[in-house]
Amino acid sequence: MAGNFWQSSHCKQWLLTQEFLVRERSEDLQILGEVEYQKIMMFYANVIQAIGEHLKLRQQVIATATVYFKRFYSKHSLKSCDPLLLAPTCIFLATKVEEFGPLSNSRFASSVSNAIKNKFSYAFPNDFIYNIKHILECEFYLLELMDCCLVVYHPYRPLVQYCNDMGMSDMLLPIAWKIVNDSYRTDAILLYPPFQIALACLHMACVIQNQEARTKIWFAELNVDMDKVIEITHLILKLYDLWKTFDERNEISGLLKKMPRAQLVEVKEEATQPSNATIGGK
What we know:
Distance between the termini: 28 Å
Number of helices: 15
Number of domains: 2
Radius of gyration: 19 Å
Strand content: under 5%
Helix content: 55-70%
Shape: globular
CATH superfamily of the largest domain: Cyclin-like
CATH topology of the largest domain: Cyclin A, domain 1
CATH class of the largest domain: Mainly Alpha
């Protein structure tokens, strides 16, 4: 693991640009509108969250899985791999990278199936159609796409440091932490360093708690690009605006039917061979 963010693969390989994301998503956006695409991404982030909570994972494990999911589709079309398979695969890989365990394959597959059945039956009437062999095969595909760049730097640590530096952890940290969790429903983690995301969420918490005037000098003394912080704030506010109008239970089935579909590939008994895990070509 790199000693600091600036020397990490996260910084050097996985800070993308908005232009790059638009270009790579162009195939999907010919079928889905931008808002529809974002709703699908939000929905699968909720799926990852629900599975993670069912497994009683730490929030950082869930966040790492969400980043893997977003990284994959930053360079692949939705039709290249069924998101319903990729979501638990990202969690499966994240539990290893974040050293959460031991977690048996059978327990994991059963927990995924139960979480999908209990939480998302309105979206998946056939429940979870994959098994652990599909997940293991999809894991190889995910690792290849990410070039084995598995270390993810999150906004949580700098957020705690900033709150402590302000001397306002009790007042600001719980709210800012929740906003950081919400930020994973946006593209912020693909576009900005985690410390900037932490600052944006902290500033939003200050506004919510009516502490903006009290913390104005602290923010003014920071040696950071506040324009980037404002951009992140706008991304999160757009998310909240979208949430207000997104009736997930009633809308998502139609969106999933409209979504580009992956082609089925024949399953093999060996985990190292291509499977019918709804994985397409690159």
